[in-house]
Amino acid sequence: MKEALVIVDMQRDFMPGGSLPVPDGDKIVPRLNEYVKLFVERGAKVFATKDWHPPNHKSFKEYGGPWPRHCVQGTEGAELHPDLKLPEDAEIVLKATKPDEEAYSAFQGTDFASRLRELGIDRIYVGGVATEYCVKATVLDGLRLGFEVYLLLDAVKGVRAEDAERAVEEMKGAGAKPVTLSQLKG
Ligand code: VGL
Ligand code: ZN
């Protein structure tokens, strides 16, 4: 089994003070950094996804979508949280880059699956935001595509606690394996 860490959408716009904030989204940064350290020690690849919308993306309210403008390509709001410590060779996955396509999953409309397969990776550990949107979609797609998927219970954060809880149950029901840092270290 070759594994990778996948950090979903830890961008400024999804953090408190951003345009589409996940409450306490920034609180998981230190834990994610601990996971990064652990996976680098294990010799595993680290991926970080970025929601990467064109300015006229359909998910924005002004274009009929549900969300305020967020994570516009090249803007400060689309940058990763400044305290997130990624290794030099971390790989970035850009998603939802086309104006007319919404994509919550890091696998949707990207080459992520083929990049993982090229590296021989068959097991991914997923953390980040938001639990009930992009984390969930990425986990479920990963499972559907045949990857073994672990959900980092102590390194995800949702927009609404109840929805996040339900999303965790749904991911577990689909085959995702919940895990925490102490379990991985133990
Ligand atoms: C996300 C809403 C809109 C997410 C992205 O990263 O969970 N949520 N775009
Ligand atoms: Zn988005």
Model description:
- This protein has 186 residues and is of the alpha/beta class.
- α3 runs parallel beside α4.
- The model has no long low-confidence stretch (mean pLDDT 98).
- The radius of gyration is 15 Å and the shape is globular.
- A six-stranded parallel beta sheet has the order 3-2-1-4-5-6, sandwiched between helices.
- α1 links the parallel β1 and β2.
- 28% of the residues lie in helices and 20% in strands.
- The chain has a single domain, classed as 3-Layer(aba) Sandwich (Rossmann fold), CATH 3.40.50.
User: What's the CATH class label?
Assistant: Alpha Beta
Helix content class: 25-40%
Number of domains: 1
Shape: globular
Major pleated sheet: 6 strands, parallel
Fold topology:
Elements: E1 3-8, H1 29-41, E2 45-51, E3 91-95, H2 112-118, E4 123-129, H3 131-144, E5 148-157, H4 161-173, E6 177-179, H5 181-185
Helix pairs in contact: 3-4
This protein binds pyrazine-2-carboxylic acid and zinc ion.
Which terms would index this structure?
six-stranded parallel beta sheet; binds zinc ion; 186 residues; 6 strands; binds pyrazine-2-carboxylic acid; Rossmann fold; 5 helices
Task: Describe, in short, the structure shown.
28% of the residues lie in helices and 20% in strands. The protein has 186 residues and is of the alpha/beta class.
